[in-house]
Write a structure and sequence with these properties.
The protein has about 300 residues and is an alpha/beta fold. Helix content is about 45%, strand content about 25%. The chain has twelve helices and eleven strands. The strands form two sheets. Strands 3, 4, 5, 6, 7, 8, 9, 10 and 11 form a nine-stranded mixed β-sheet that branches. The protein has a two-stranded antiparallel ribbon with strand order 1-2. Helix 1 packs across helix 2, helix 1 packs across helix 3 and helix 2 packs across helix 3.
Length: about 300
């Protein structure tokens, strides 16, 4: 009797989920030739081809799609059983997590430390980028899970709110003494216009906002903070990332009575079936972007 190993089914389903042999190899922490060899072995066992070449890509055959549809519930049940029995401590493979810089500077590091303890054999691949880019990579199966700023409204994803951070205007003490509360009287540095924080900064200023041509931009919050620390201008940044600087009086908060906040969410694809990814998603959903947040 011919036998099919579980890793054959797992490999096939990851190719189906992610779209390419290369992406499946990366997810399974193996090589593309190894993935190709597994599919050849599986095809030899079942007696019909699973894939056919479509231009430069490989597409499932009609019988291949039917085979995947029949295997998917079975594999989901196996993964769910392992999850319930606590066997995911031995899970291996690459889990790709994307996060914005604010999450990477606040809630993500302690969470990753715990995750490596509970999943010691898993390889974590972390990417820091702007929310817009992270969402596109998730939808293209380039990430398994992301943490982003701002609201995400799409039927293609599932989200879980993890709290918010306050956004405030800051300046160096020397510059603050010169300009008072007039943030438009100094060079203005904001996050790149693709960041939702850029739009919130302009909305906070209202009709007094300078034209875009007069606004300097950078895609890195820490770089913005360094510029302000060196008397380079004013900026609109997350309070949690400058809390210590304000406490030490290295920075001054402008317009103490004015601030905005921005929500953060953990996001996965709506069709995500991997119980391991969903388990990590549930754990991240229990986080708070700023657990020590106080009214400011």
């Amino acid at each position: 009797m011919k036998r099919i190993a579980l890793y054959h089914i797992e490999t096939l389903l990851w190719i189906s989920r992610l779209g390419t042999f290369a992406a499946a190899a990366e997810r399974l922490n193996t090589t593309q030739p190894a993935v190709s060899a597994r599919i050849r072995e599986l095809e030899n066992q079942i007696g019909f081809p699973l894939f056919q070449r479509a231009g430069r890509n490989m597409a499932l055959t009609i019988r291949g799609r039917q085979f995947v549809e029949e295997c998917e519930p079975l594999w989901t049940s196996i993964e769910a059983m392992l999850l319930q029995s606590g066997q995911f401590a031995g899970a291996s493979g690459t889990v790709r997590i994307g996060a914005g810089e604010i999450a990477a500077a606040t809630c993500l590091p302690p969470f990753l430390s715990v995750l490596k303890t509970t999943l010691p054999r898993a390889r974590l691949e972390i990417e820091i980028d702007l929310s817009q880019s992270l969402l596109q990579k998730l939808l293209n199966a380039g990430s398994d899970l992301i943490i982003v700023a701002g609201q995400v409204a799409s039927p293609q994803v599932e989200t879980a709110p993890i709290g918010s951070v306050d956004l405030i205007w800051i300046a160096s003490p020397m510059l603050a003494a010169e300009i008072g509360e007039d943030v438009c009287a100094a060079p203005m540095w904001l996050l790149h216009r693709h960041s939702p924080i850029h739009g919130l900064a302009l909305a906070e200023l209202g009709d007094g906002a300078p034209p875009e041509a007069m606004i300097n931009s950078c895609n890195n919050v820490r770089a913005l903070i360094d510029i302000v620390l060196r008397d380079g201008g004013v900026s609109f940044v997350p309070e949690v990332m400058v809390r210590d600087h304000i406490a030490s009086e290295a920075l001054v908060r402008l317009h103490a009575d004015r601030h905005r906040s921005i929500e953060f969410s953990a996001v996965i694809r709506a069709q995500e079936r991997d119980p391991l990814v969903r388990s990590i998603f549930q754990q991240i959903a229990a986080l708070r972007i700023d657990p020590d947040r106080a009214a400011v």
